[in-house]
Amino acid sequence: MRLQRVVDRDDPRLHEFLDLRDTAMRARREPAEGFFLAEGEATIRRALAAGYEPRALLMTERWLEPLSDIDVDALVVADDVLAATTGFPVHRGALASFTRRRLPTVQEVVRGVRRVVVLEDLVDHTNVGTIFRSAAALGWDAVLVTTRCGDPLYRRSVRTSMGAVFALPWTRLDHRTGLDQLAEAGFTRLALTPRSEAAAIGEFPADDRLALLVGAEGPGLSDQWLAAADIRARIPMYAGVDSLNVSAAAAIALFVLGPRFVGD
């Protein structure tokens, strides 16, 4: 670790860590500049273990020893400078920037895999990260996200996934042609929907190659994707509840249709 002490939030070395609360700006800027942020020691180490290249580490004095083994330029600041730079108190005490990788093609991601979860236009980064975490924990192989979906490598997605975004292969697919690509690859496309005419989930066996389609919070899957799906499935509801949060609904479907349930 190469230490550099910084005393001013306007120091150009802090450029990658400025104004983290400005979600719209950060979501545009980080992919364009080719980096992402990981927060906290556990998440930073998971990114390192996954082979991502660190660019810089921003931390307070108390994190010098726990992270001293990392080969990176470390920007050491006081607590008030850290809060002024990021726009909020960083309770985990450390942030790291990493270089993004080239996204693989859809064909590269799905080659040889059996279960893929596909996210259509989910803009909430917390939901994106939570679904990645559930998919990894429940034995799914990969994640595909549409071009309008939130960034899986956005800081909040990374944090809520507990680093699962580093464990699963993922890429973006074209909203218009992506489902055709999955059909050509031999996947049964199952649309998760609360519509009453859909079959109850679990009433049919999971196919060998299954793509679970999940839509955005509120509107759900688009009519185009519902029409293109091979199967439409719902989670039965009680007590007058008509739907669940998208990450909760996805977790149930990932469990019911995942390898544990069908005996792989």
Question: What can be said about this structure in brief?
Answer:
By secondary structure, the protein is an alpha/beta fold. The chain contains ten helices and twelve strands.
Describe this structure in words.
The protein has two domains: 2-99, 60s Ribosomal Protein L30, Chain: A (2-Layer Sandwich), CATH 3.30.1330.30; 106-262, SPOUT methyltransferase, trefoil knot domain (Alpha/beta knot, 3-Layer(aba) Sandwich), CATH 3.40.1280. Strand 7, helix 6 and strand 8 form a beta-alpha-beta unit. Helix 5 (125-137) packs parallel to helix 9. A seven-stranded parallel β-sheet has the order 8-7-6-11-9-12-10. It has a five-stranded mixed β-sheet with strand order 1-4-3-5-2. The protein is elongated. The mean pLDDT is 91. With 264 residues, the chain is of the alpha/beta class. The protein contains ten helices and twelve strands. Helices cover 31% and strands 22% of the residues.
Spell out the key features of this protein.
264 residues, 10 helices, 7-stranded parallel beta sheet, elongated, Alpha/beta knot, 60s Ribosomal Protein L30, Chain: A, 5-stranded mixed beta sheet, alpha/beta, single chain, 22% strand
Write the layout of secondary structure elements.
Blueprint: E1 2-5, H1 23-33, E2 35-39, H2 41-49, E3 54-59, E4 73-76, H3 79-86, E5 94-99, H4 106-110, E6 115-120, H5 125-137, E7 142-146, H6 155-160, E8 170-173, H7 178-184, E9 188-192, E10 199-200, E11 210-215, H8 223-228, E12 231-234, H9 246-257, H10 259-262
Parallel strand pairs: 1-4, 3-4, 6-7, 6-11, 7-8, 9-11, 9-12, 10-12
Antiparallel strand pairs: 2-5, 3-5
Helix pairs in contact: 5-9
